[in-house]
Task: inverse folding
């Protein structure tokens, strides 16, 4: 049984990805819990006096709610897995557990396509990977600092890529496509890229870009407008914020 404390967007994506078997959702709001139960068919429990003794718990609340949650639960978890951005393992120890793991999935968990970075007590590595492999890919990192960097890429990345997708569609409309046509082509593009993403980005670029061709012309425009440096700065800023949460 995996217990998920919280029912926000990321928690719901994990619930949907894991499915109903062996999942229990815990929270304060009875109405929201009832909605979770009806929507996903999972067991639900009230947070107050909830016993985490020997359970595997995924903590999926807002970072500022950590202290309040710790006051309402009792017992010692087998493994506490936190998806709270910027909250380090030392801070997590307000909740008692044998092992602590930090995880950073993304909302594609709902489609079993999350890229989840993990770090923490090595004794819990296999268990954490087993859980999150059910909702996509995992990568175990050897430090919390690297996990915070991964947060900026894998966690925030879907929003950054949404900006790219929106820009592609807007560009298509500006050139004469209907809006639905532009969105459909952009969606197909992202699926196409996902299918070849196991290649290095430079290799993909070199295979597509022919001398003095359309791709080279567009690529030059991106470089002139600083798109590469803008995305690098976005990752750096998200990383800094993750450490300040």
Result:
């Amino acid at each position: 049984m995996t217990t998920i404390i919280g029912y926000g967007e990321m928690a719901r994506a994990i619930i949907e990805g894991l499915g109903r078997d062996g999942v229990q959702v815990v929270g304060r709001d009875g109405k929201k819990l009832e909605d979770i139960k009806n929507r996903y068919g999972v067991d639900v429990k009230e947070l107050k006096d909830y016993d985490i003794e020997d359970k595997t718990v995924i903590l999926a609340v807002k970072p500022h709610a950590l202290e309040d949650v710790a006051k309402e639960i009792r017992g010692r978890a087998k493994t506490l897995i936190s998806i709270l951005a910027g909250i380090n393992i030392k801070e997590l120890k307000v909740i008692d557990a044998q092992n602590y793991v930090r995880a950073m999935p993304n909302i594609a968990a709902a489609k079993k396509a999350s890229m989840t970075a993990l770090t923490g007590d090595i004794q819990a590595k296999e268990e954490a990977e087993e859980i999150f492999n059910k909702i996509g890919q995992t990568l175990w990192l050897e430090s919390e600092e690297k996990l915070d960097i991964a947060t900026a890429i894998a966690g925030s990345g879907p929003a950054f890529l949404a900006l790219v997708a929106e820009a592609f569609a807007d560009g298509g409309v500006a050139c004469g496509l209907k809006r639905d046509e532009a969105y459909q082509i952009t969606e197909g593009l992202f699926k196409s890229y996902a299918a070849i993403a196991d290649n290095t980005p430079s290799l993909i670029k070199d295979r597509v870009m022919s001398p003095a061709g359309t791709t080279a012309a567009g690529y030059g425009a991106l470089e002139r407008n600083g798109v590469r440096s803008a995305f690098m700065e976005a990752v750096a800023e998200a990383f800094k914020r993750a450490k300040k949460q």
